[in-house]
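Input (structure):
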């Protein structure tokens, strides 16, 4: 019974650590997304203030900013996904180690 409680406690600790890692990764990705969108708005406002005419040059700049923002968001999502995958792998490894130790 002691080993079972210890196993449950260890499992709960690993689950909580994994949940915290997910939350941290999601918050970091969200913050990067907010920053990227604010930068896009700031750049767009600057562009609009410099020229009220919708020229080909301003459309090209907008396309570049949209593409950069998309890439930034994709990079942030991929980084969060990698951190999530790593946290889950660590949890699996800890669990496997605990199971193997309890069998020995």
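Output (sequence):
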């Amino acid at each position: 019974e002691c080993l079972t409680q210890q196993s449950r406690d260890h499992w709960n600790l690993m689950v909580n650590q994994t949940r915290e890692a997910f939350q941290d990764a999601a918050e970091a990705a969200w913050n990067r997304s907010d920053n990227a969108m604010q930068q896009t708005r700031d750049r767009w406002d600057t562009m609009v203030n410099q020229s009220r005419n919708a020229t080909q040059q301003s459309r090209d700049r907008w396309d570049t900013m949209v593409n950069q923002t998309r890439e930034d968001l994709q990079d942030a999502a991929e980084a969060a996904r990698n951190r999530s995958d790593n946290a889950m792998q660590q949890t699996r490894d800890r669990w496997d180690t605990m199971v193997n130790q309890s069998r020995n």
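Notes: Residues 2-50 form the longest helix (49 residues). Residues 39 and 66 are 11 Å apart (CA to CA).
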